[in-house]
């Protein structure tokens, strides 16, 4: 039985009250104009979808959304922690906001998202970026009205990076970036703890939305003109664990909806991608016929160190099954090069797997150590130069197949 992660309606009603309070304060503070807000999103589709709900709360508080921080009264960066350079970019961009705050003392600069769920990062912001008024983590984003109200009323900085197994806040207002290509989150969090990945530490435990809430939102999205609905989760294949509706069942419900739309989903994990799922996709009328199945490496030794939970052969068997059942399926994947202790021989196994699968496209990365993950403490003797050389070799193979298929 899945634990109850739902935020009680009473708590969401309290946030509605805070939103009204903020609206009143802002209309007194800016009597001749609408207060303006700017939100910038880093990272994955999951973060883009979270930002659509944050925008809903921001508009509910009375702000008008603008597309530059320059004239904004409220600036929010929704951050990503998946790779080092993503974090470096955030620190750099936050620094550039200082000049605006110097010009306008009443401006509120806020940071949220995965990066801020890491205590050592939030502490760095607290100590080194005094012009940042508000920092909150991934488990409390539904409390944004309360936090803004506190900043406006006390003129003090607010920090909240409550750690928990995670929450599901249903019924939040959504401001979609694109009605034709709409994101539909179906679950949050991850229990896989791949040894290189920070996500389970910042996004909490796997929790699935109630199928009824998902179908209601899907119908709204289709009525809103969506041509493509992308179902989102850190590990969509484990949707519904501990409930009587698994991912295949949910896809059949979505497939039963009428309308001229296609559906896609990400991100899948090969160890939870079942033959039942492939069979369901092969019988679907709305499925987009794209399958993104991150393999990360072709070496069993590295897959074990990554704690991926499948072998090269098991992965290739799944791929063959998918190709047989869905002959026109377009296959994509993620590859990490230069994982700690990886040898050139391991890397060659990744190349040979790519030659065998012949992906339509790949998302390729050089391993980025993440503080707090198991891999961060593994010995890593491969030089940056060596890893870059392998990476170039990988791109050459990718080019070869991208053209052919
Ligand atoms: S499945 Fe692995 S890589 Fe993906 S979010 Fe979970 S821990 Fe990270």
Distance between the termini: 44 Å
Task: Tell me, rounded to a whole number, the average pLDDT.
Answer: 95
Label the structural class: alpha/beta
Please give the largest β-sheet: 6 strands, parallel
Compressed to H and E, one letter per element, the order equals: HEHEEHHEHEHEEEHEHEHEHEHHEHEH
Q: How many β-strand stretches?
A: 14
Question: Architecture of the largest domain, according to CATH?
Answer: 3-Layer(aba) Sandwich
Structural commentary:
By secondary structure, the chain is of the alpha/beta class. It folds into three domains: 9-160, Methylthiotransferase, N-terminal domain (Rossmann fold), CATH 3.40.50; 178-288, Transcription Regulator spoIIAA, CATH 3.30.750; 291-405, Transcription Regulator spoIIAA, CATH 3.30.750.200. Helices cover 41% and strands 15% of the residues. The protein contains 14 helices and 14 strands. Strands 2-1-3-4-5-6 form a six-stranded parallel beta sheet, sandwiched between helices. A three-stranded parallel beta sheet has the order 7-10-11, sandwiched between helices. Helix 9 packs parallel to helix 10 (275-282), helix 10 (275-282) packs parallel to helix 12 and helix 13 packs parallel to helix 14. The two termini are 44 Å apart. The model has no long low-confidence stretch (mean pLDDT 95).
